[in-house]
Amino acid sequence: MRLSLKLKLPLMTIIIIILSVSITAFISLSEVAKDAELKGARDLSQRISVMRLIFNQRGGSFRLQDGKLYAGDLLINDDTIVVDQISSLFGGTATVFLNNTRISTNVITDTGERATGTILDKRISDLVLNQKEAYYGQAQILGENYFTGYEPIFFNNRVIGILYAGVKTEEYHKAYNQIKKVVIISSIVLVFIFGLITALYMMRLGNAMKKTSNLAENIAAGDLRDKDITIRSDELGDIQKAIQIMTSFLRQTVITIQESGDSVVRLSQEIDKSSQSLSESTEEQAANLEETTSSLEEISSMIDQNTESAQQTNSIASDNVEQAEQSGDAVSRTENAMQTVAEKVGIIEDIAYQTNLLALNAAIEAARAGEHGRGFSVVASEVRKLAEKSQNAAQEITGLLSDSLSISSHAKQQLASMVPSIYKTAQLVQEIALASEQQNDGTKQISLGMEQLNEITQYNAMMSQNLANSASLLSENASKLHDMISGFTV
């Protein structure tokens, strides 16, 4: 069950009043009880003092003789004059104990007889007899509750008995109970009066709070129009003033938001269109960059192949230069060898010519010798033939060597003219290879730049898409905000 604040406030106030009055009454009654107990203890102490005074006047000081208690010469055992006199003066009961046994008392048992010979409660007897202290407080005597006082009787600095005075608890609390009734009735009357006053005040306060609640409910429902209400002069009136100020501020805020919302809707729609166009352009640019990057990769691959071919050609040209130089050296060595051979053949030709002359002179001399020189003439003739053949062969070799020298010289000249060309070709090929490498490096840098540009373009495309999504979301939220604001009545 949901209780309204109009009902809760009076109930809470009445409960607080009841608790406050109850606590006050309880504390008051506790203090009254303490005061009554102190007053009762003083009253019982006064009775016991009067009892001592009477025993002293009748006999004298307390003493113990032959197991009996005396006041001077007065035997107290079974003498009830003093205890009855105390009861007649003050009311209640009185008793004289020898140790812990009643020897003179007006306490009556259930049979209607005096409780002479009965034993004191052990807790009290230990306190008074053993610890030599007086006791004032609640105690049971023969099954009935009493407010009692017990004081020790001293003889030769030891406790020989106890003087008692007491009243029944119900008689002792009679005045306290009357005060308690008065306090309870007064508390009930106060609670009723304060509760009635509080209820009337809270009813008026609840009506004002109901009006304030209705005003807040209208604001919650979107009705921000001015309302005519009576402003109180207390804290609730301050709340009502604050609500009116808040309503005015909200009304101006809603009007401003409505105007701004319309502008936001239009701008968000334009941003949405622009972002969509930007996103499409960025995606197209990204596609073109991907194609350009692919073409650059193909060009870079071709440049790599050209560089590799140029390097191979450079290697071959270097090898050709080395081989041409080696061939030139070989031709030079061959030419030198042929010149040496030609010189040696010339010597052989001279030797053959001289041999031929010598053979001719020998044949002449053999002819002169006649018959005796015929055999020598034959040998000389053969030697001459051999010399002629050797001379002819030497001449032929000389001719061949001359041709070979001419050819070698021509070959040497041609090789000598080819080596600079081969060097130039190798140098050009090296320049081509270097240019290809530089071109390859440049292409790689361009490719890297294109990749970075592609990444940037992809990022721009993603951001453009995010911008488009954000613009769409902004447009949607602006429409929702416009719809929400339109629910207010200003």
Q: Write the element-wise H/E pattern from the N-terminal end onward.
A: HEEEHEEHEEEHHHH
Strand order in space, largest sheet: 5-4-8-7-6
Q: How many beta-strand elements?
A: 8
Q: Please count the helical segments.
A: 7
Which descriptors would you attach to this protein?
490 residues, alpha+beta, 5-stranded antiparallel beta sheet, 3-stranded antiparallel beta sheet, 7 helices, 8 strands, 76% helix, 10% strand, elongated
Describe the model.
This protein is of the alpha+beta class and 490 residues long. It is built from seven helices and eight strands. It has helices at residues 5-58, 81-90, 122-130, 169-172, 174-220, 235-369, 374-485, and strands spanning 62-65, 68-71, 74-75, 93-98, 101-105, 135-141, 144-155, 158-168. The strands form two sheets. It has a five-stranded antiparallel β-sheet with strand order 5-4-8-7-6. A three-stranded antiparallel β-sheet has the order 1-2-3. The protein is elongated and about 230 Å long.
List the helices and strands and how they pair.
Elements (H helix, E strand, L loop, with lengths): L4 H54 L3 E4 L2 E4 L2 E2 L5 H10 L2 E6 L2 E5 L16 H9 L4 E7 L2 E12 L2 E11 H4 L1 H47 L14 H135 L4 H112 L5
Antiparallel strand pairs: 1-2, 2-3, 4-5, 4-8, 6-7, 7-8
Explain briefly what this protein structure is:
With 490 residues, the chain is of the alpha+beta class. The chain is built from 7 helices and 8 strands.
